[in-house]
Design a protein that fits this description.
The protein has a seven-stranded mixed beta sheet. It starts with a strand and ends with a helix. The longest helix has 17 residues, at about 335-350. The chain is about 40% helix and about 15% strand. It has helices at about 25-35, 50-60, 75-90, 100-105, 125-130, 215-225, 240-255, 270-275, 290-295, 305-315, 335-350, 365-375, 385, 400-415, 435-450, 455-474, and strands spanning about 5-10, 40-45, 65-70, 95, 115-120, 140-145, 175-180, 180-185, 190, 210, 230-235, 260, 280-285, 320-325, 355-360. α8 (about 270-275) links the parallel β12 and β13 (about 280-285). The structure holds cobalamin. Cobalamin (B12) binds near residues 22, 67, 118 and 363.
C-alpha cells in the first residue's frame, strides 16, 4: 500500500491562551517527506478538533501517524489521540518525536499506543522508517520496548536540503497583525553553541546550524508571498554568527520586513545593533540579576550586559522582552531579590519593556536537572505525569516557601503585561481573558511598587479559578 503519513501537532495547553504560531516541528517534517515522494497530511490540534483528525484517519488509507511532543500538556493530548487512533486502526504505525522524546526517550518507549520513537531531528529517520518498514535498525529510531542503549543519534541534517512547502498548511491561520503589519513566525536555524544549564541545548549534543543566506532568501520569499511584513524568529539563538544575521537583515531591509528574535544580552551593543537592520524588538534570556547564579548556570553574560542591552535597545528606539528565572537549586533569597531588583532596573532603563519571570522547571536533558534530582527533586514517574508538567508548578524540595516565588512570578507577569506589546508565540490574549488580566494588573502594580510578595490570596484564587476552568472546559 502506498504510504500516507498523517503528522499531528497536538494542543500545547488546556487553555490555548494565545494565537497559535506555525507548528514548524511537523511543518519541516511534512515538507521533507513530500519532497521525497511521500503523501502527507498535516493537522494542528489547536485548529482542528480531535474528532476531525480521527475521522480523517478512519476514512483514508493512512499508514503512518506522527505526533509531536514538548514536555508538558502536549503529551496528554498526544496520548489521547494515539490511544483513539490505535483503537480504531491498530495496523497503523504510530510514531512519536519532538523535544520531549529527545530529552526523555525512556518515558515513551513502553507505551502500547506508540510503535516507534524518533530521537532528535526527524526528517531523515522518519523518511527512512516509512520507506523501509522492515529495516531492523534505523539511526535515531527505536521501536516499542527497544533498549535505550540501542539508540544511535544521527548527524545533523544539512539544513539547505530542507525546504518549506506552504501548500501543506493554511498560512492565514497563523498570520496576525502587529503594529499594523501582517506577522508570522519563522525559523532559519537550529540549536545553539552555548550550554546554559537549564536549556535542552546543554545536554543534547547541540551545535548551531542554519540555512545559507541564499536559502534564507529563497524560503523568506515564499512566506512573504502571503503579504507578510513582520517576522518573529523562533530560532533558539539568532545571533550566534553576527555576520550571518547582518546578511539576513540586509534581505529583510530590502523587502521592508520588520522582525523580532532571540539574541543574547552581550551581543546587543551599539556596534551590532546598527547591523541588525529592521529589528524592532529583541527577546533576551536575562535569567538572573545575581552574577553568582549567572556563572553557576553557565549563562556566560554579566549582569551589566543585561542593563547595557536595555539601554542600547532603548536608545535605538527598539523594545525588548526580558525573560528571568528564579528557583535555581543553588540560589539564595538574596539572589532572588537581586533578580527582582534587576527587573526593576531594566524597566527604569526601558519603560514598557516586557518582563517574564518564571519559576525554574528542571527539564530532562539539562545539567541542572541532575543537580535538582540530587537535591531531592522527584521527577515525574509516568508519561502522564510528564504531561502534567508545567512551569506553574513549584514542587522543588529545596524551596520552602513556594508561594513567595509564585507571587513574584505572577506579579511580574501582570505588572508588565501589556497586550499591545506582546509579540511572538505568547501572542496577544484572547478577549475573554482581558477583564481578569486588567484586575490582576491593577493589584500587581501595587505589590510591585511596595515590593510586597506575601499573603498571595488573589493568586491562590487565580490558581483555583484556572483549575475549575480546566475542569469545566476539559
Ligand atoms: C515555538 C516554541 C513554543 C511554542 C510552540 C508552538 C507553536 N509553534 O506555536 C509555544 C509557545 C506553544 C511553546 C510552549 C512551551 N515551550 Co516552547 N518552544 C518553542 C521553540 C522556540 C521552537 C519550537 C520549534 O518550532 N522548533 C523548530 C522545530 C523544527 O524543531 P523541533 O520542534 O525540535 O522539531 C524537530 C525534532 O524535534 C523532530 N520532531 C518534532 N516533532 C516531531 C514529530 C515526529 C512524529 C517526528 C518523527 C519528529 C519530530 O523533527 C523536527 C524537525 O527536525 C523551542 C525551541 C526550539 N528551538 O526548538 C521551545 C521549546 C520547545 N519550548 C520549551 C518549553 C520549556 C516550553 C514550555 C513548557 C514553556 C511553558 N510555558 O511552560 C511550553 C510547553 C507547552 C507544552 N504544552 O508542552 C523547551 C522544551 C523543553 C522540553 N523538554 O520540552 C524548548 C526546547 C525551549 C528550550 N530552549 O528549552 N513553545
Amino acid at each position: 500500500m502506498e504510504p500516507l503519513c498523517v503528522l499531528i501537532y497536538p494542543k500545547t495547553a488546556e487553555i490555548e491562551f494565545s494565537h497559535p504560531d506555525v507548528p514548524y516541528s511537523i511543518f519541516f517534517l511534512g515538507s521533507y517527506l513530500k519532497a521525497n515522494g511521500i503523501k502527507v497530511k498535516l493537522f494542528d490540534q489547536r485548529i482542528s478538533s480531535s474528532r476531525e483528525i480521527v475521522q480523517y484517519i478512519e476514512s483514508n488509507p493512512v499508514t503512518h501517524v506522527g505526533l509531536s511532543t514538548m514536555t508538558g500538556p502536549q503529551i496528554i493530548f498526544a496520548m489521547d489521540l494515539s490511544r483513539k487512533i490505535k483503537q480504531l486502526r491498530p495496523e497503523i504505525d504510530i510514531i512519536w518525536g519532538g523535544i520531549h522524546v529527545t530529552v526523555a526517550p525512556g518515558s515513551v518507549l513502553e507505551q502500547d499506543f506508540i510503535d516507534y520513537i524518533v530521537y532528535g531531528e526527524g526528517e531523515e529517520p522518519l523518511l527512512e522508517l516509512i520507506k523501509n518498514p522492515d529495516k531492523k535498525s534505523i539511526k535515531g529510531v527505536l521501536c516499542r520496548n527497544d533498549k535505550l542503549e540501542n539508540l544511535e543519534p544521527r548527524e545533523f541534517i544539512d539544513m539547505d536540503t530542507i525546504s518549506l512547502d506552504w501548500s501543506l498548511i493554511n498560512p492565514q491561520t497563523y498570520i496576525s497583525v502587529r503594529e499594523g503589519r501582517r506577522y508570522i513566525s519563522f525559523v532559519t536555524s537550529r540549536g545553539c553553541s552555548f550550554k546554559c544549564q537549564y536549556c535542552y541545548n546543554s545536554v543534547t549534543k547541540s551545535r548551531w546550524r542554519s540555512w545559507s543566506i541564499d536559502k534564507v532568501r529563497k524560503e523568506l520569499e515564499k512566506v512573504l508571498e502571503f503579504d507578510i511584513s513582520y517576522i518573529s524568529f523562533m530560532d533558539d539563538n539568532l545571533a550566534v554568527n553576527v555576520k550571518w544575521l547582518s546578511e539576513v537583515c540586509k534581505i529583510l531591509e530590502e523587502k521592508n520586513v520588520l522582525w523580532y528574535g532571540d539574541i543574547r544580552a552581550n551581543v546587543i551593543t551599539y556596534e551590532n545593533i546598527k547591523k541588525f537592520k529592521n529589528c524592532t524588538r529583541v527577546f533576551i534570556g536575562a535569567e538572573s540579576g545575581s552574577q553568582r547564579v549567572l556563572n553557576d548556570i553557565e549563562k556566560r553574560i554579566k549582569v551589566e550586559d543585561i542593563f547595557n542591552a536595555a539601554k542600547v535597545l532603548h536608545d535605538s528606539g527598539m523594545t525588548g522582552t526580558f525573560s528571568w528565572i528564579i528557583g535555581f537549586p543553588q540560589e539564595t533569597r538574596e539572589d532572588v531579590m537581586d533578580t527582582v531588583n534587576a527587573v526593576r532596573r531594566v524597566s527604569e532603563i526601558m519603560p514598557g519593556a516586557v518582563q517574564r519571570l518564571k519559576i525554574f522547571s528542571p527539564y530532562p536533558g539539562s545539567q541542572l536537572y541532575k543537580m535538582t534530582v540530587e537535591k531531592g527533586y522527584r521527577p515525574p514517574a509516568t508519561l502522564e505525569d510528564w504531561g502534567r508538567y508545567t512551569r506553574e508548578h513549584c514542587d522543588l524540595p529545596y524551596i520552602k516557601n513556594p508561594w513567595w516565588y509564585k507571587c513574584i512570578s505572577y506579579v511580574t507577569f501582570f505588572n508588565f503585561y501589556n497586550d499591545k506589546d506582546i509579540i511572538g508565540s505568547i501572542g496577544s490574549s484572547k478577549p475573554i481573558f482581558r477583564p481578569v488580566i486588567a484586575v490582576y494588573k491593577f493589584l500587581s502594580s501595587f505589590r510591585w511598587r511596595l515590593n510586597f510578595f506575601g499573603f498571595p490570596v488573589e493568586f491562590m484564587m487565580l490558581d483555583t479559578m484556572r483549575k475549575i476552568y480546566m475542569k469545566v472546559t476539559r
